[in-house]
Predict the 3D structure of the following.
Amino acid sequence: MVKEQKEKLVVIGNGMAGCRAVEEILARDPERYDIVIFGAEPRVNYNRIMLSPVLAGDKTFDEIVINDEAWYADNGIELVSGDSVIAIDREGKELRSRSGRTESYDRLLIATGSDPFIIPVPGHDLPGVITFRDLDDVEKMLAAAERGGEAVVIGGGLLGLEAAHGLFLRGMEVTVLHLMPTLMERQLDEAAGFLLKTELENRGQTILTGADTAEIVGESHVEAVKLKDGTEIPADIVVMAVGIRPNVRLALEAGLEVGRGIVVDDDMRTRDPSIFAVGECVEHRGLVYGLVAPLWEMCKALADGCTTGATGYRGSVTSTKLKVSGIDLFSAGDFSGGEDCEDVVMRDAARGIYKRVVLKQDRIVGAVLYGDTADGNWYFDLMRQEEDVSDIREAIIFGQAFASGGGALADPNAAVAALSDDAEICGCNGVSKGSIVSAILDGSGTLDAVRGCTKASASCGSCTNLVEGLLTITLGEDYSGEREVKPMCGCTSFTHEDARRLILEKELKEIPAVMQELHWTTPDGCSSCRPALNYYLLCAWPDEHKEDPQSRFVNERLHANIQKDGSYSVVPRMWGGITNPRELRAIADVVEKYDAGMVKVTGGQRLDIFGIQKEDLPAVWADLNAAGMVSGHAYGKALRTVKTCVGSDWCRFGTQDSTGLGIKMERMSWGSWMPHKFKIAVSGCPRNCAEATIKDFGIVCVDSGYELMVGGNGGIHLRGTDLLCKVETEGEALEFCAAFIQLYREEARYLDRTAPWIERVGLDYVKQRIVEDAEGRSALRDRFLHAQTFLQKDPWAERVAGAEAHLHQHLAEIRPFAAVGAE
Amino acid sequence: MDANWLDIGPVDQLPALGARTLPVQGGQEIALFRTANGKVFALHNKCPHKQGPLSQGIVHDTTVTCPLHNWRISLLTGEAQGEDKGCVPTIPVKVDGGRIFIARAEALAGAR
Ligand SMILES: Cc1cc2nc3c(=O)[nH]c(=O)nc-3n(C[C@H](O)[C@H](O)[C@H](O)COP(=O)(O)OP(=O)(O)OC[C@H]3O[C@@H](n4cnc5c(N)ncnc54)[C@H](O)[C@@H]3O)c2cc1C
């Protein structure tokens, strides 16, 4: 009897794809092939993605083995482990291994996976630099963790964060360095990345974003990591987790077509009909993958083609989860947005939840979930099926149970109506549906009224939709959705006052924190709320505030006024409108040197230099600084100018030293950021040559003292000042002025001048706070002067010294046929 | 190096939610933008309304608001949003290995 000669299948790679392919083939036709598997790793096939739990101590290696030795034996598979294939001879259909073994094949399957990418910085080859790919790497990390000390993980993606988590649980001090501004930026948007970062930091890891590694420092072993900005972080080990490269060397040397990966067709066949490839090493329809889900599908298609008949692989849609215990995070598809895309965002600060579903033409194209990922698979399914979700659009963000609850429940109002009276609507303030409905029936007909009377939705705002639903159900047609006070902008249901109050109450100190805690409905706000929030934060936390230049309007970002041709105008400060030959010469020199188009005397008694290019601004400022001049803040929502008349020193009518007082006022209040621009003037007598009665704060000197005037402005709606009070000394005038500015800074809405603010709150209120309440006044003044200690830094001098230099420089320049890049 | 793409420098020189400029000798200055999640876009640095420098606007989501008159321009398509009508050319860009590449042909379009 002649034994039938079977076809021989040789597999290179004993990893996830290689073994899965063999399993799939055996399931279809166990008798078809003689199978030999080469594996570079000296062990059986295991579940690579579970290396993270092994590192973290949640699993042992035995628990993550997929196929043990018995499996190979039972299926007649020969495993050549610990021996890597080093060459493929396609003509002779033969392989050679490192140990010198040769093996012929009829069909060959390449499943060599990927290699970790190592950034080629100096020191990358020092002992103690570890990658995260196989069990050997994990063992190296565990050995290092035994000794304790500090670990630096380079790369804040999935792999890096899982490594960091494991090492942290093993007792090491962990610092994660991430080049991009947000963690896992390929899978997460800024909001979710912020939550993740905060959570990891709270646990005790140090996360540095925007961190660019320059060098790994050490003599015979790593000692530290040095960043391009000069920071040095001590390290006993460095884990490099910055990405992977498909392992294509064998295929390339064998002359197969290789792009980013080994190129295969829909049957996973390379350009050589007897050679196939699956897993991370392949490129299919232009795509390479770094996750396991696609390789399950690839292996099915491969096995079909090698046994029962080709079915074809068509590419995969992937989703990601992070395997860090206690952090639920899910991401799938595309959430870069765009105008034909619609974002549905839900935030629940109390429970630390952020969900964002991106819709395009009534179909889900992307989803990011943080904190509650229960519905991840459901969204992912709808996305893959490209299902039309217009019917459940309103409720989709609440998840499957809610949205697919059938007929009535798909309408969120009906869902609210279905709740019992004692169902809790507002978790922050413990307000039930019953008490909200009775408040509405008692006459609270708007969201603001309900908030005022029951506190429902007045804290984090996440139940705003539910409260509005109750208004609609209870009042029917009578509910118009009108607000008493308008929300800040379309990104939130909160008013300016609410946002300011909550920033203080909840001690929110960064814009992303405000957006998360107050349930912003957009991922990163808009051009109206971002500058407002930046101002509210700097006003609330003068000592700690970190400026966000991207939330400043151009003029405040560049410390100059943009003109219609894109050039800038520059106004140096002239205290009280007084100047001298040195300043005038410096200004004249600047005008000539930088070819300024015009110099103009402004209404605020300053000289305005027009037509400066943004690249020249630092040089112009350096010249003006050299003559003793600082920024005039003519571009800012800030103290602009203190205008004065010549006063008692020169004028025959003058009653007081108006110029001297003006200079003191300006020295006290310059540099202060405000809700809007702020102008001061001091007139030496009631003839009022300095036009003090159309300023935000005006002083009219009289024989017996100083009349303090507030709330005036020129402009479209001309408004004369109101008399605040009369004081007797310069000291009092200064104190009242500081207190008034601080009250305005703390209580006016961003972009309110003093005039509309006073009209809204009433002059009596301002008088009560500034004139009648002496203790309150001096507290206001103290807070103003405290804030000024942080704000009175000449922004021009800082730029001259090199701060934010990138704002003034081109990224690069293109000359046809040659590009000159930065660095 | 691929002749169709110009390497214009490391992506970390572009702040998130910020922009930088790229003059083209004899052609249109280009503005490069980076969104919160790290995506990079390139548009002519000229608002279709009154030629305002878009690179100086505030970036939010995938939109930039022009600093001159608050027109909102899509970074994806260059189209004005909302009620406003107009469009600014976009230039293909990609980020590879931490560096920004811009499509040569489109970047040089109109340059002599
Ligand atoms: C720590 C970690 C966590 C992960 N977590 C997730 C996750 O949560 N979700 C997810 O979807 N994916 C995750 N992945 C990715 C996932 O593990 C890979 O996508 C998957 O393992 C790819 O399978 P593969 O067979 O193509 O490559 P591998 O599993 O790497 O197998 C390739 C094998 O081939 C061997 N080999 C290479 N060259 C030769 C040669 N010349 N001769 C012989 N043998 C060779 C290698 O030693 C290796 O054993 C994670 C990866 C890691 C490292």
